[in-house]
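Quick one: Putative MFS transporter, AGZA family, xanthine/uracil permease from Halopelagius inordinatus, structure tokens please.
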Amino acid sequence: MGFTETLADYFDVQEHGSSVRTEILAGVTTFLTMSYIVVVNPSILTDQPFIEGADGIAIAGYAPSEVQSMLAVVTIIAAAVATLIMAFYANRPFGQAPGLGLNAFFAFTVVGALGVPWQTALAAVVVEGLLFIALTAVGAREYVIRLFPEPVKFAVGTGIGLFLAIIGLQGMGIVVDDAATLLTLGDVASNPVAIVAVVGLFLTLALYARGIPGSIVVGILSTAGLGWLLTTLGVVAPDAGLVAGSTEATYNIAPLAGAFVSGFGNVEAFSFALIVFTFFFVDFFDTAGTLVGVSQVAGFLDEDGNLPDIDKPLMADAVGTTIGGMLGTSTVTTYIESASGVEEGGRTGLTALVVALLFIASLALVPLAAAIPQYASHIALVVIGIVMLQNAVDIDWSDITNTIPAGMTILVMPFTYSIAYGIAAGIVSYPVVKLAAGDRDDLRVGHWVLAGAFVLYFFVRTSGFLSAQF
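--- reply ---
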């Protein structure tokens, strides 16, 4: 039996209606769309003393650039380990890495606004991961996810699609922030990055519509190549942002690895519990929403909207978070960008294995992620975001008690830049509208418990109560 046949047999590729070639292509696609985290995560987590209001990890005797390099290595290792577990244990095509939003909360809120030592914040991440491992082992996380109301489950994919699209359009310079309207169209015609991104986007959409295999990868590489060509020929200035920069790798992560141990003695128990609670809540429902949304695209959900054997990808996420915190990075989570690989046909852990191997390869090279500019990789997010809108057809829009929680889930998710907030809005509204409509038979005690837990979370997160404890 050849190597290809061995891979196909181990991951049950044919049984999942895929092929080794398709799985590899899907893995490359997922990696390209999530590889930006190798650059972005260190940038967010590293304290930048020359930037007003910035905060995060600062290590005595090391410049911010050196800390960023350490964090890049840690980010790669954490992503690779977690995704390898996803591949071999869960056999699912999901990529994992330190999560956006969670890293910002770590650096700017916990370490910055609350003044908690970064070592203590890492200790909270490790405790959160250990709690996840325990809860997953006894089936508690799977039970909670199964309590998700059906309209919320079916709305998650569409909400994630809108969320992906906004992230992608911002990264491409097409959508920018605006003081009056929050979002507006950027100066596309005068911004070389936006111009090249628009060309690349329509090229990718055209290839996708034609059914060209690997259209998203071709689009990303073509866009990055066009930016490099225009810069090399002198059509645009080298500092226009069309070519990704690169940094020299530093592999000594000793100042970060194990730093969480000293963090247990730096804060009293109640305050520490609040930090763990907040990390726990956001990661729990970010991961749940991502798994359900991406699985909907892949056709993994059963007739009740549940993901069979969800405990396995949840365990991969839990172990990844624990290892990441021990190494020195914020919470690891399943990536919504996995939808790009699923759309390319990825259906098994072989896709995740390819993602993990590419992360590992980026250690030996000048980080591979740095070779693809952000505006090029984010084209995939817009394309997949558009495709994921079709998931809304699974919702029974004729029933207002389904329309309201589904609509809240879809709208709140992109507008608050959080998968967890969108799910929370849907879950809180579901029992309220069901009770108001007299549909008590559709309600369970667990629905009210989940809704109450989210109300408590919103109070802790937005009332200033957390800040008052420090």
